[in-house]
Amino acid sequence: MEIIRQITLFKEKIKEARRLGNSIGFVPTMGFLHEGHLSLLRQARAENDLVVLSIFVNPLQFGAGEDFEDYPRDLERDAALAVSAGCDIIFAPATRDMYPKDYATFVEVERLTSGLCGASRLGHFRGVTTVVNKLFNIVTPDRAYFGQKDAQQAIIIRRMAKDLNMGLEIDVLPIIREADGLAMSSRNSYLTQAERKSATVLYRSLCLANESIAAGERNAGLIEQLIRAAIDSERLAHIDYIAVVDAENLLELDKIEKRVLIALAVRFGKTRLIDNIIVEV
Ligand code: AMP
Q: Fewer beta carbons below 10 Å: N end or C end of the chain?
């Protein structure tokens, strides 16, 4: 496996792979890999000739006062994990090469970006779509792999790829969880022991909602209240949002009648965690 930092050098590798007729599978990440990232890499390995992982902590998707500086970084550890999951090349560009001083171009998806995480992290998705667009142009993947963990992001990227005729396949894979249900996240490393314990309430509350819908509840407001009560019972948990929305267009629902996305963002101390489930009715 190779680690390439230079954009021009990396593009030469891609050109060579293309010359050989190799298909390219791509997993974009911010690094500090865990089983969630590795599940994407393994799927890419199974479906493509060349597997590319990008590691880039993208400053553009962090707001003022967010954790850009603190975000965990460990390339050596990531490289060992990436190899074990079948990665061929890690592309780890420098910020100054991705965004030189005269950088002026941004990509924005409308509507889908205004609610949920877009409402509490202004400009976040503009940063995500811009960097993913740049990475797609550099990597030229046949298939790109994303996690359902970032449900809104996956929907936005699918929209962008379709709207801009990018001609690649976007695969969205299930959330990988710890044994106690907590969705894996690089940010889990910020949690204190007590916060880590409390954080299991995210998935527990989503499971309660799922059970209630399975038992016949269709009132979205009541489902939201059920989740709110469960999370509020944890002293260390502070709700950012609870959303019960249409799983296709992210619009709010009064009544649960079709595929619904239930998504949460909750703070534990300085750490903001997200989780979600999709419920079919
Ligand atoms: P990140 O490094 O957090 O930007 O995540 C990179 C990719 O991994 C994104 O497509 C995420 O949705 C995905 N991902 C993160 N956590 C998980 C998880 N627990 N299960 C599955 N995919 C995940």
A: C
Secondary structure letter of residue 92 according to DSSP: -
**Do residues 109 and 201 both lie within one domain?**
no
Residue 281 counted as domain residue: no
Is the Cβ atom of 175 under 6 angstroms away from ligand 1? Answer: yes
**Residue among 148, 107, 105, 111 at smallest CA distance from 126:** 107
Active site residue 238: no
Q: Which residue's CA is the nearest one to ligand 1's atom 12?
A: 147
Residue 206 belongs to domain with CATH number: 3.30.1300.10
* 28 and 130 part of one domain: yes
Q: Of 150, 205, 199, 152, whose CA–CA distance to 176 is shortest?
A: 150
Domain, as residue range, for 247: 186-275
* Closest Cα to atom 11 of ligand 1: 147
At 100-148, the pLDDT tens digits run 999 999 999 999 999 999 999 999 999 999 999 999 999 999 999 999 9
d(CA 111, CA 281): 25
Ligand 1 within 6 A of 202 CB? no
- Is any ligand 1 atom within 6 A of the Cβ of residue 78? no
